[in-house]
Amino acid sequence: MANNRRKYGKIKKVIKFGGSCLKDRSSLLQAVSIIKKENERVALVVSALSGVTDLLLDAYHLALGQEKNFRGIINSIEKRHLLLASEVLSLKNYALLAERYRELFFRLNRLLRGIALSGEASTSLKAAVLSYGERLSAHLLAVILNEAGLEARVYESEKAGLVATRVSEEAEADLEAFDRVFRTAAGEVEAGNFIPVFTGFYGLTPEGRTALFGRNGSDYTAACVARGFRALRLVLYKDVPGFLTADPEKVPEARPIPALSRLEAAELSYFGAKILHPRIWEPLEPLNCPVEIKSFKSPEAPGTVIKAKAEKSANIIKSLSASENLAVLRVEGPGVGSKPGIIGLLGTTLARNEVNILTVLTSQTCINLILSASEGERALRLVEKIQEPAIRKVLLEKDLALVAAVGHGIRETDGLAGKIFSTLGSARINVEFFSTGASETAIYLLLKKSDTGRAVRLLHQAFFGEKTEGRKRSLPPGSAVELHHRQVIDTR
Ligand code: ASP
Ligand code: MG
Predict the structure, then answer these.
(1) Which candidate, 420, 468, 419, 413, places its Cα nearest to that of 444?
(2) Which is nearest to 383 in space by CA: 348, 358, 359?
(3) Residue 438 has pLDDT above 80, yes or no
(4) Any residues with Cβ below 6 Å from ligand 1, and which?
(5) Rounded Cα–Cα distance for residues 12 and 6 (Å)
(6) Which of 40, 80, 135, 359 keeps 20 to 30 A from 421, CA to CA?
(7) Mean pLDDT, to the nearest integer, of 300-317?
(8) What are 179-238's pLDDT values in tens digits?
(9) Domains within the chain, CATH numbers bracketed
(10) Residue 51 CA, ligand 2 centroid: distance in Å
């Protein structure tokens, strides 16, 4: 009976395996064992094997530069997948997968040859190249599941109907179109008795051009798939134990947070904590389903459960995040605060050129636009061209960082700002800009980049009450740290 429940009918749970989980023989077997323990019917979403997206990116750049050695990279990707397959599959299944790979690598090589021939940069061709990481891992995992006696079928984004609104590396899904198109795949899945394995990370515009949902985009795909099935649970397996009270690289005593609200998680992932794609909440909006972030290595550990509704913690502040990969564009002039329309003007100018403003901190004489570091220079040039007499000076500051203190109930709690200022003040850390009250969930501080580590350690001590000694780690190197610091955007 348990077995039947696992195989037929409605998909109750969507499980995503991140790329950092899928890297070698034992991790692939671990993925199978996690699925085997499920007693509800599940759908899977996969990322590319660890490191593969970056290799594909290298291959794309080499091809674009008309350098032939992109072939070497593609060969090494092929070898790595086949070697892994040979370690876990019977000869028969290995041959089956090798057959599928021949077709995939044929198409990938053709794509790269075309790019090398034209030598012209194209976002959709770049996205198409990068999409192969997920295709390769989805087919690998599906055959491994079959070998383990669990029938699985791959749904590449084309077949699933992941409609993207535009060609971009940071695209979003056209959710209305997706709802319509996905019905076909969902109907097929729910009439069958197999595990569907969806490729994460990419979608297709209505014209059939490839688009990416940003780095870590498989989280976003998983949210779309959960929406499509009206799943009751979404579980994202990562190489970290969940959200932490701070970046463990800065605060060795940082500890996992058992529960967060969607808003809190969004604030934390927006600034600093690269653990989760910041936009998964849009596809999940109509669903009440909790999202669990779990450790792939210790799946029995509770991880972090993210629920729609917020709960206040005794501390109010649940986590501190720091974002050092920023640029601050300072727009100054005595009248910028009082003259109507200036923020609108800045916003539309930048939006028209696809520069995303992360947040805005304003005073009467200064508007601070917080941007991702890779977009700073471009934004500066665009804003300098604006003809507006109230704008007297535009400065690009690269040595600032944004610290966010996140927790539900900030606005209605007295003394938080005082505590932050006195903690930092007594350590002679200057707060360049401070913003509270804009949301129920976050306080933003702008500090000198060089002060960030110290500031976060002191604030962590003030709010979570533990002494931090030196830089001793409580987590293995290269786990959360890597996620916290990984550059999200390809800046080449
Ligand atoms: N493979 C893509 C990346 O490395 C997407 C993902 O991992 O979710 O960003
Ligand atoms: Mg990844």
Answers:
(1) 420
(2) 348
(3) no
(4) 18-19, 47-48, 53, 133, 200-201, 215-218
(5) 9
(6) 359
(7) 93
(8) 999 999 999 999 999 999 999 999 999 999 999 999 999 999 999 999 999 999 999 999
(9) 2-238 (3.40.1160.10), 319-485 (3.30.2130.10)
(10) 8
